[in-house]
Design goal:
The structure is a homodimer.
Chain A: E1 9-12, H1 23-32, E2 37-40, H2 47-63, E3 68-71, H3 74-80, E4 84-87, H4 94-101, E5 106-111, H5 114-122, E6 127-130, H6 147-156, E7 161-164, E8 182-185, H7 187-190, H8 195-209
Parallel strand pairs in A: 1-2, 1-8, 2-3, 3-4, 4-5, 5-6, 6-7, 7-8
Helix pairs in contact in A: 1-2, 1-8, 2-3, 5-6
Chain lengths: ~210, ~210
């Protein structure tokens, strides 16, 4: 059966933003601070390294009963029996991914416009990731998406929508009344000195203001 | 059912060695020259690019009824319904790959010593790739394997063994009487001006001399 998902505070990892902590420590602290979902993203690791890291992270997400989504690599998701996969426009097509993972795994798809979001929903996506909402240094290939487009996407699809891209404590209040189900955060949590506190603050502002 | 495989002349692709031809043209000419098996290896492509290339190459291998093996990426192999996957020591573990692909797909595993080869056979490999037999510029992370070790591996496993690494027209005769089932060739075919002729020559020397 498909894992029930709370998209409120979605942590997306980025190993390059880590300084003193290990990725495992960072993820555990983020979950303790209130992250409801974790996406493991590894862009330079070998398959074996990605697999090992994913096993380590899964031990943590399982412990806290938080779903784990693997970015891009469907094979890694299958190898560690993750809860799902997130694909962007440079990854495998959503229809193909759905065929490979079956109906019980979560499939997230990135979309930058209503047309792509509707297409992703039709192709079997369980949720849509929309961004980059704000300027970001962590994902340079993402095009910017306006607040108007975000609201349009929320209205035109029936599945949950998660905002992503440069969301931080200063701008998260701007996502008030957009109707999104959650915020996906990278550096504003994982690159902070106190990861747990940063997650708590983001959650507090988003839940209060959104 | 598992595809019946002739390992005699195993083409392994390397896009970076290509000059004037497209990868599709190169693979077709190599098959016309006698290659019996094709492994698609893409180390820098996005998942979407790898998928598209794999679909294009599969159209050619299907046309000539030559099996297509995908290097490393189990998800790409599943996405295009390739005949199998080849994994090295930096890729997903063989036991995990076998679980994901099922019993009917071909699983190739790289091994540099008898111990690893025996382990790979036990873990479900259909064939072993052994190398680098000669010095090579195309795979800088591969350690060199002596002729003695190659012969030892052939004796100690019951599945087919394919030699790889720097094999060319000048040195292929040295693999005479090693008992290997085939030679995996990269640059000595794909980087040559006349790919078809190069494949024909390699095949002629190997079949005559081995």
């Amino acid at each position: 059966m498909k894992t029930k998902v709370d998209y409120t505070l979605y942590l997306v990892t980025d190993r390059e933003l880590m300084s003193t902590k290990t990725l495992e420590e960072a993820v555990e602290q983020a979950i303790m601070g209130g992250c409801t979902l974790v996406q493991l993203r590894e862009k330079t690791a070998s398959s074996r390294e990605f697999y090992q890291t994913a096993l380590n992270i899964k031990a943590i997400t399982d412990k806290y009963k938080v779903p784990l989504i693997i970015n891009d690599r469907v094979d890694i998701a299958l190898a560690i029996d993750a809860d799902g996969v997130h694909v962007g426009q440079s990854d495998l097509p959503a229809t193909i991914v759905r065929k490979i993972i079956g109906k019980d795994k979560i499939l997230g798809v990135s979309a930058g416009c209503a047309e792509k979001a509707i297409e992703a929903q039709r192709e079997g996506a369980d949720y849509i990731g929309v961004g980059a909402l704000f300027s970001t240094s962590t994902k340079t290939d993402a095009k910017s998406v306006s607040k108007e487009t975000l609201i349009k996407i929320v209205k035109e699809v029936s599945i949950p929508v998660v905002g992503i891209g440069g969301i931080n404590e200063q701008n998260v209040a701007q996502l008030k009344n957009t109707g999104i189900d959650g915020i996906a955060v990278v550096s504003a949590i994982i690159a902070q000195k106190d990861i747990k506190l940063s997650a708590e603050k983001m959650l507090e502002i988003f839940v209060e203001k959104a």
